[in-house]
């Protein structure tokens, strides 16, 4: 913005009038000292207007260059910075601060009417359409703050205090003057009412935007595309909303992509979500929630690291008290094509749903399972996903697909141990005991046992027990090996010192706060500080969670040590080399077995049945040759090779460390 402004001279007023300009009062127009009147044509001014320098040339798509300036517009009560390009405004621009290097070209209306929070403070009814879990969205809302606001309603004082903090922020940004920040571009668009636009954002062909904020920065420009309609919204840096998407009362997180006619209301999407074609209502979507297909309805559900199959459908009411029921899909869940779920229900972490289910089940105690439809029954197959390709590939791909470029990443995501971690492994300990209890009480006359409203096949009980134990051994061994590899161990004293933890392990268990893995007791302490008003601002709460995020390795190891002590039935200070080599042997066996199951699962992709449709005009040899050219071979597949190499490498590490530690006793 221009720092030194002055009134127009008589000659400048005369020149502007000759160029088709007019004003309700020329005295209210102020300009930069080096103002160039030649670049303003066919403009009507009203209210108080300031205009900066107009010296640069702007380069448009295709290489076309035009001089900065204002042509064909009505400007009311605006502050306009240096080197802007404003052209062909069919209605008017009113009550805006327009910063340097902004482009506004071929738009209908850009205006602020009265006081506006620009989407901040909008109440979004996530997870339960009937209300009770509303989140007041604002510019800096994180997945973790949203998680507390939606799910910790039983802590009334906590919620009240956080909402007060957010209200204070909303008051601080409420204004009768809008802002289009430096470098933003708005072109070929319809109406923008009460919309704040961040730096370097691009709005191209949007139909209507009302009461919202588009946050953006030069490192992570936000893009709003063709025919988009959005009202009562906050869109974060690096996000893309395109192709006739329709949003109402929505929060769109960093690097999230919504498009291809997708529609959503009363929904949140945190970092790296993708949503195309389908529909969302009261969706509480944590990081990496993905829905790509038509006829997919996500309603009244909480999810994260989730993949919705085509035609996924959900129901949140039973025609009694209305749409008041909710569903929870814990991290890593998947729903198969045309799956149906009747809420209320809860699906355990890294589990899969296939078929239609009217049972109101809870498999949170059986993670890594599959829930299948069989002869009208809902059947659970426990732990089977521990040995599938999909689980491994998902955990491997998410860190690589973090598209956030903003230096300030809002959502806290522990990319280490996405699948196996204290949150999921604590459930495995309990899951194994659940299956053992079911096995002990199994009716020998029946092939199935009831697990809530689900059925569990007898033959899957023992397999589930074994798989959960392997998952436990694999995770504890991964952490143990990492610890030993990162520290020098020459004798028993050093071994015990390396394995010791300075942090007291949390007994209350772990929680998954939309990507942030945290000891439950630590979270409770933070919330207590909120209640006692020791933490007075949302920024202070976020810093506390940032500390938890940074201390994750410390908390994790303390928890792992506690589990090792329970397995050994002794304190880690009394562990022997033989104890540790025993754990390493269990880790090696679990790794080999699980990797073997994963390879067997991968091999199905190269079976003869997978070649159907290949080599259409030839014999079996041509079919196989065509398949190999398109899909490659099992032996040459990069994923298969990586799993095979992992088995060999882990075996070598186990043998080397075991030999070294055996000498410590």
Describe the structure.
This protein is α/β, with parallel strands linked by helices and 665 residues long. Among the domains are: 123-173, no CATH class; 577-662. Helix content is 31%, strand content 27%. The strands form seven sheets. It has a 27-stranded mixed β-sheet that branches. Helix 8 packs antiparallel against helix 9 (538-550). The chain starts with a strand and ends with a helix. The mean pLDDT is 93.
What gyration radius follows from the Cα positions, in whole Å?
Answer: 30 Å
Report helical residue fraction.
25-40%
Distance between the termini: 73 Å
Structural class: alpha/beta
- How does the major sheet shape up? 27 strands, mixed
Low-confidence stretches: none
**What value does the average pLDDT take?**
93
Concise synopsis of the structure shown:
With 665 residues, this protein is α/β, with parallel strands linked by helices. It contains 13 helices and 44 strands.
Q: What labels would you give this structure?
A:
665 residues; alpha/beta; 27-stranded mixed sheet; six-stranded mixed sheet; 13 helices; 44 strands; 27% strand; elongated
Ordered list of secondary-structure elements with their pairings:
Elements: E1 5-7, H1 10-18, E2 22-23, E3 29-32, E4 40-46, E5 49-51, E6 57-59, E7 65-67, E8 69-76, E9 79-80, E10 85-94, E11 96-98, E12 103-111, E13 123-125, E14 134-136, H2 143-151, H3 156-173, E15 178-180, E16 185-197, E17 202-204, E18 208-214, E19 223-224, E20 229-235, E21 240-241, E22 246-252, E23 257-259, E24 263-269, E25 274-276, E26 279-281, E27 284-285, E28 290-291, E29 297-299, E30 301-303, E31 307-308, E32 313-315, E33 327-329, E34 334-335, E35 340-342, E36 345-347, E37 352-354, E38 356-357, E39 370-374, E40 377-381, H4 389-400, H5 422-440, E41 448-451, E42 454-457, H6 458-485, H7 492-499, E43 510-513, E44 516-519, H8 520-531, H9 538-550, H10 552-568, H11 577-603, H12 620-631, H13 638-662
Parallel strand pairs: 2-4, 3-5, 4-8, 5-9, 8-10, 9-11, 10-12, 11-15, 12-16, 16-17, 16-18, 17-19, 18-20, 19-21, 20-22, 21-23, 22-24, 23-25, 24-26, 24-27, 25-28, 26-29, 27-30, 28-31, 30-33, 31-34, 32-35, 33-36, 34-37, 35-38, 37-39
Antiparallel strand pairs: 1-3, 6-7, 13-14, 39-40, 41-42, 43-44
Helix pairs in contact: 3-8, 5-6, 6-11, 8-9, 11-13
């Amino acid at each position: 913005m221009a720092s030194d402004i002055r009134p127009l001279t008589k000659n400048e007023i005369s020149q502007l009038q000759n160029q088709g300009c007019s004003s309700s009062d020329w005295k209210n127009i102020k300009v930069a000292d080096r103002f160039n009147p030649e670049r303003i044509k066919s403009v009507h001014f009203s209210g108080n207007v300031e205009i900066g320098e107009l010296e640069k040339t702007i380069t448009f798509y295709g290489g076309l260059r035009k001089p900065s300036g204002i042509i064909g517009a009505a400007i009311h009560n605006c502050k306009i910075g240096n080197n802007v390009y404003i052209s062909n405004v069919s209605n008017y621009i009113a009550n805006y601060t327009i910063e340097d290097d902004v482009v506004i070209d071929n738009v209908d209306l850009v205006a602020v009417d009265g006081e506006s929070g620009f989407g901040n403070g909008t109440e979004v009814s996530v997870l339960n359409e009937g209300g009770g879990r509303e989140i007041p969205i604002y510019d800096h809302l994180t997945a973790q703050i949203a998680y507390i606001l939606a799910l910790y309603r039983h802590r009334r004082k906590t919620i009240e205090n956080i909402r007060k903090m957010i209200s204070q922020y909303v008051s601080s940004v409420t204004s009768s003057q809008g802002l289009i920040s430096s470098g933003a571009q708005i072109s070929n668009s319809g109406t923008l009412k009460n919309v704040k636009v961040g730096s370097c954002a691009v709005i191209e062909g949007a139909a209507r935007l009302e009461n919202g904020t588009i946050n953006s920065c030069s490192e992570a420009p936000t893009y709003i595309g063709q025919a988009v309609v959005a009202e009562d919204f906050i869109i974060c840096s690096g996000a893309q909303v395109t192709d006739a998407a329709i949003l109402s009362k929505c929060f769109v997180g960093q690097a999230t992509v919504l498009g291809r006619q997708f529609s959503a209301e009363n929904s949140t999407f945190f970092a790296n979500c993708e949503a195309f074609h389908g529909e969302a209502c009261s969706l509480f979507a944590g990081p990496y929630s993905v829905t790509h297909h038509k006829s997919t309805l996500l309603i009244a559900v909480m999810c994260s690291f989730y993949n919705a199959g085509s035609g996924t459908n959900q129901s949140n009411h039973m025609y009694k008290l209305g749409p008041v029921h909710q569903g929870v899909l814990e991290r890593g869940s998947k729903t198969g094509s045309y799956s149906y779920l009747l809420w209320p229900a809860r699906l355990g972490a890294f589990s899969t749903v296939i078929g239609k289910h009217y049972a109101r089940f809870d498999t949170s105690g059986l993670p890594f399972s599959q829930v299948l439809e069989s002869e009208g029954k809902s059947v659970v197959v426990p732990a089977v996903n521990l040995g599938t390709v999909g689980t491994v590939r998902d955990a491997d791909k998410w860190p690589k697909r973090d598209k956030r470029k903003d230096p300030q990443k809002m959502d806290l995501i522990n990319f280490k141990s996405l699948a196996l971690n204290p949150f999921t492994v604590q459930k495995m300990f309990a899951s194994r005991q659940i299956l053992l209890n079911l096995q002990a009480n199994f009716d020998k006359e029946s092939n199935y046992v009831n697990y809530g409203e689900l059925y569990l096949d007898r033959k899957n009980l023992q397999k589930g027990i074994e798989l959960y134990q392997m998952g436990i051994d694999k995770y504890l061994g991964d952490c143990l090996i990492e610890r030993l590899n990162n520290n020098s161990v020459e004798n028993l004293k050093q071994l015990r010192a390396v394995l010791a933890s300075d942090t007291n392990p949390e007994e209350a268990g772990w929680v998954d706060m939309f990507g942030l893995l945290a000891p439950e007791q630590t979270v409770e302490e933070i919330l207590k500080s909120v209640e006692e008003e020791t933490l007075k601002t949302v920024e202070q709460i976020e810093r506390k969670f940032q500390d938890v995020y940074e201390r994750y390795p410390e908390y994790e190891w303390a928890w792992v040590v506690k589990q090792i002590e329970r397995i050994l039935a002794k304190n880690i200070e009394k562990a022997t080399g033989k104890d540790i080599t025993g754990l390493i042997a269990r880790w090696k066996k679990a790794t080999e077995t699980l990797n073997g199951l994963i390879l067997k699962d991968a091999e199905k992709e190269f079976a003869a049945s997978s070649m159907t449709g290949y080599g259409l005009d030839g014999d079996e040899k041509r079919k196989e040759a065509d398949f190999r050219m398109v899909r490659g071979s099992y032996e040459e597949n990069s994923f298969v090779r990586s799993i095979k190499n992992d088995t060999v490498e882990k075996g070598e590490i186990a043998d080397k460390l075991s030999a070294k530690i055996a000498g410590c006793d």
